[in-house]
Write a structure and sequence with these properties.
By secondary structure, the chain is of the alpha/beta class. It contains 19 helices and 26 strands. Bound molecules: fructose -6-phosphate (F6R).
């Protein structure tokens, strides 16, 4: 998730672009850059780190000109560095891009073979070279971009300049957001509304598969194939603060609702529906490596540890490989028995959690191979690992992890399926079935979020003063019960326990009385009957029981006080759906209590202390 902006008008462009980037910094901030039409051609200034560094660079090398594009980066291909920062230039062409080009490997090979000198590790530079080739062949910028788009698979919002056409910016969109702003004698583009609000409230939203030519007098929109598009201008009444959170009250709520998008981005290029398999190219392990693994050890902390627990379930059931899951803080310094033949999977959203980093380093020193699953490109854990399988959730601003958790689940289940197929634990038929079921998830998640939001908010309102809350689940639902309890504790400061449903009778059942809400996960899977009887046990002790079950589950409805219905999925994939109402529940309890949802007390987004 990056932010892009563009301006064409009569004012100096650099301050407007910088201001836009500042409002988009929440989309990523590991490097930034501008390209501006100047008398000598397109000039570019880029800097690593926060926007302040770009501002300093611009003080030394000011950009003069009234047409330009800008970018704030959240790395997805290539670590944060100046050479990987946008805009990317090829000959007269400069490009900024938000998204992921899936066929980047094939394009890179093709361009290299054709003699292009590619300087960065990014997919975006390849777009610049493709446009340049068309421009060199005599195409105008619009046609050059159009032809280039026909070569791209994946997600993009791009803005392109060419020295040869200084009065024009060409933009295009597919899957990544892009909005155009229509001002007085000026036209803008940006990834999101907030970047443009100080300049204009008249916006034009591009749809997927559309492009536009921006000039000072306005924008001409067409489909990528060239058919004209008539799109009405919309007047936006958001305040800038609302806009930054896309109209949501908190980043956490926005990120909860971003999960379908986070999953789509994380699946992109990895779910090979044609082959009915996982494309494991980015996992960084060969088929021989897959055959050599004797055991998997998952290391993680907090929410990532809960994702890792689901990962163990998948690695055992789908790949039939012995797997253990460890809290990194308990693994490190224990002199654990680990070594050659073990694959360590270090799961960390930030890639910087000290306990996970140290634990993975210790295991590596003992001869184990380390695979990182991380969301932040170039962070410490990926740097020390033998391979990294990145999640593409985009930057997570709320301290309580939500969309990164779902993206971790996605990478873990994809890895388990990939490994299971390589080790002949999964048949081609079951593999294809799972790939198809994964592809359906983003829509099912969106439906579940929209379908449960109001009911969950009502339940949160009803139980906002409960002093203790229990979350119960079995099998794949156990880590989700733990995650539900952790979310509630960390943002609403309510005492909550997540428990393996079958363990309740060994102790925690003593906690239950008429004042304790008990949220029981009873999706249709192999544990369904047993989980339902645990639910009935809680109900028999007069608890207020909320069941989280599949749509239309009459038994769960009859046995509980309230039923939250989630979309029915393959039994192996229930966590993707069941976690959603639990995230919403903790969010609404916290919001009704008036706590600082995005920055709860005593917590930090990245924990780099012992
Ligand atoms: C809870 C939460 C934390 C993190 C934990 C590990 O919502 O976010 O429990 O999961 O601090 O962080 P990462 O994944 O960055 O290693």
């Amino acid at each position: 998730m990056c932010g892009i902006v563009g301006y064409i008008g009569n004012e100096p462009s650099a301050p407007i672009l910088l201001d836009g980037l500042r409002r988009l910094e929440y989309r990523g901030y590991d490097s930034a850059g501008l390209a501006v039409h100047s008398p000598g051609g397109v000039q570019v200034v880029r800097a690593v780190g926060k926007l302040r560094n770009l501002e300093r660079a611009l003080e030394e090398r000011p950009l003069h000109g009234t047409v330009g594009i800008g970018h704030t980066r959240w790395a997805t291909h290539g670590r944060p560095s100046e050479v990987n920062a946008h805009p990317h230039v090829a000959g007269p062409v400069a490009v900024v891009h938000n998204g992921i080009i899936e066929n980047h490997v094939a394009l890179r090979n093709e361009l290299r073979a054709a003699g292009c000198e590619i300087l960065s590790d990014t997919d975006t530079e390849l777009v610049a070279h493709l446009v340049r080739r068309e421009v060199d062949g005599g195409a105008n910028l619009e046609t050059a971009v159009r032809k280039t788009l026909s070569r791209l698979h994946g997600a993009y919002a791009i803005a392109v300049l060419s020295t040869l056409e200084p009065q024009r910016i060409v933009v295009a969109k597919n899957s990544s957001p892009l909005v155009l702003g229509i001002g007085e004698g000026a036209t803008y583009c940006a990834s999101d509304v907030p970047a443009l609000l100080p300049y204009t409230r008249d916006m034009l939203f591009l749809e997927d598969g559309e492009m536009a030519v921006l000039e000072g007098s306005g924008a001409t929109v067409t489909t990528v194939e060239g058919a004209p598009v008539k799109r009405a201008i919309q007047r936006i009444d958001w305040s800038p603060a609302m806009a930054e959170k896309a109209g949501y009250k908190h980043f956490m709520l926005k990120e909860i609702f971003e999960q379908p998008r986070a999953l789509e981005d994380t699946f992109r290029g990895r779910l090979d529906r044609q082959a009915g398999d996982i494309n494991g190219a980015e996992i960084g392990l060969t088929d021989a490596d897959a055959a050599d693994i004797k055991r998997v050890v998952l290391l993680a902390c907090g929410t990532s540890h809960h994702a890792a627990m689901a990962g163990r379930y998948w690695l055992e059931s789908l790949a039939r490989i012995p797997t253990v899951v460890e809290l990194a803080s308990e693994f490190r310094g224990r002199d654990a028995v680990v070594g050659a033949g073990d694959l360590i999977i270090a799961v960390s959203q930030s890639g910087e959690t000290l306990d996970t980093l140290v634990a993975a380093k210790e295991a590596k020193q003992k001869g184990a191979k380390v695979l990182a699953i991380a969301n932040v490109i170039g962070s410490a854990i990926p740097r020390m690992s033998d391979a990294t399988f990145y999640t593409h959730a985009g930057p997570e601003i709320g301290v309580a992890s939500t969309k990164c958790f779902s993206a971790q689940l996605a990478n873990l289940v994809m890895f388990a399926i990939w490994l299971g197929r390589r080790r002949d634990a999964l048949s081609p038929e079951r593999t294809r079935e799972l790939v198809e079921a994964l592809a359906r998830l983003p829509q099912q998640m969106a439906d579940t979020l929209n379908g449960t939001r109001q009911l969950v908010a009502n339940l949160a309102r009803r139980y906002v003063d409960a002093r203790d809350v229990l979350f119960l689940g079995r099998g794949l639902s156990f880590p989700i019960a733990l995650e539900g309890a952790l979310k509630l504790k960390e943002i609403s400061y309510v005492h909550a326990e997540g428990y393996a449903a079958g363990e309740m009778k060994h102790g925690p059942i003593a906690l239950i009385d008429a004042r304790v809400p008990v949220l029981v996960l009873v999706p249709r899977d192999d544990n369904y009957e047993r989980s339902l009887s645990n639910l009935q046990e809680a109900k028999a002790r007069e608890a207020m029981v909320i069941a989280i079950a599949n749509e239309g589950d009459v038994d769960a409805r009859d046995a509980s006080d309230d039923l939250i219905e989630v979309a029915a999925v393959d039994p192996a994939l229930t966590p993707f759906l069941t976690v959603l109402p639990l995230q919403l529940y903790s969010y609404y309890v916290a919001d009704f209590k008036g706590t600082d949802v995005d920055q709860p007390r005593n917590l930090a987004k990245t924990v780099t202390v012992e």
